[in-house]
Structure formats: C-alpha cells, structure tokens
Design a protein that fits this description.
This protein is mostly beta strands and 196 residues long. The protein is built from no helices and 14 strands. The strands form 3 sheets. It has a 7-stranded antiparallel sheet, with no helix packed on it. Strand 8 and strand 9 form a beta hairpin. It is globular, with a radius of gyration of 18 Å.
C-alpha cells in the first residue's frame, strides 16, 4: 500500500512458517524492493532496491549459507536481470557518462553487460564488449541448462525502432547464432527459452 513497502518472506520447508527475509526499510525509509533472484545452487539471493522511485537500482546479496548480507553493493543497475556463471553473475547496468538524446528529445544512456564475482568490489567488475555500441541493451535472460543467454537490444533503422534478440555464449564470449530481428508493428512476443 502507500504506507508500507513490500517485503520478501521465505520458509525453510514446504510446511514451515514464512519468516521475513528482506525489508527495504532496514536500508532506509526511501527504499523499496524492486526485484529478486536466487542463484541456481540456492546459496545466494540477489535483490534490488529502488531509492525514491528512481530508475537506477542498487543490488545487494544475501548469503543463505551464512544467514547474512555480503558486503558488496552494486549500483546503477537497470533491473534485476542477471545470469549466473561460475563464482558470479552477469548483470545489466547503466553506462554512466554515456548520455544521449534521441530524435524525440528523450535523454537516456546506454546500458552495458558486466560480470561480478561474489565477494569483490564492483569497481573490479569486468565490462563485456560482445554487443556493438550502436545497440541499446534492454535485458538479458538465462537459457536454461546452457552456457548461453539471450540479450534483447533495440536499434533505429530508417526512422523505425527494431528489436534484436542475440544469443551469447559465455564459453566463447561470442554471438552463437544470427540475430532474431523483430519488425516494428509485428505481433511477436517473447515467452522464454531453454536448451532442447
């Protein structure tokens, strides 16, 4: 409601009681919970907080095995979009300093894909350069049971905005198939993807 921010609850078993796990108010009255994601091995919980309704999220990590928060705080995130790999995860954040104005006069800034290793400072995160800078990255999605993930991008061509879906291999760090291009005005809807 308008006076209470949403909280995240969990329970240890199917028949156990729900216990409060994350309360955004513990980080400040101006915070609200904007998203969460659990690692494939169930060791970590990623959750994002929005401060004062801004589009820029902060990401924090809860360690289930130790029952406490990790020290690192990731800032400038576009959303909870994340893809786990090895000892960390890929995530999407704003590329601070790359502001631009589109033909409609809207000011935005390009987003970039980064890799964060659990336990390290965000300043050490590796920036991935798989996607040409002429594209604007909107989201990343994991492809189940695979070393690949799906990247949704947009790009202007001839005065129209086209949507591109790119499949990236984390093993080779390259695009593994040709783009899926969505024509403006088409009735295409992305539902999900998994390895066959």
């Amino acid at each position: 409601n308008n006076t209470t921010a949403a909280k995240l609850f969990c329970k240890k078993s199917e028949y156990g009681d729900f216990n409060e796990l994350i309360s955004p108010y513990s980080f400040g009255k101006e915070y609200s919970l904007s998203g969460y994601s659990v690692s494939p091995d169930n060791k970590y919980l990623l959750f994002t907080l929005s401060k004062g309704g801004t589009d820029w999220d902060e990401l924090r990590i809860y360690d289930f095995t130790k029952g406490k928060y990790k020290e690192e705080v990731l800032t400038g995130l576009l959303s909870i979009n994340s893809v786990w790999k090895g000892d960390g995860f890929y995530y999407l954040r704003y590329n601070v300093g790359s502001y631009r104005t589109d033909k409609f006069g809207r000011i935005s800034n390009k987003s970039i894909i980064c890799y964060h290793k659990i336990g390290q400072d965000q300043q050490k995160d590796e920036v991935m350069s798989w996607i040409d800078s002429s594209y604007t990255i909107e989201s990343i999605r994991d492809i189940e049971n695979s070393d690949k993930f799906l990247v949704k991008c947009i790009k202007e061509r001839g005065g129209k905005i086209y949507t591109f879906y790119k499949i990236i291999s984390t093993a080779s760090q390259t695009e593994s198939v040709k783009d899926i291009i969505v024509i403006p005005g088409s009735d295409f809807h992305y539902l999900g993807c998994a390895r066959d």
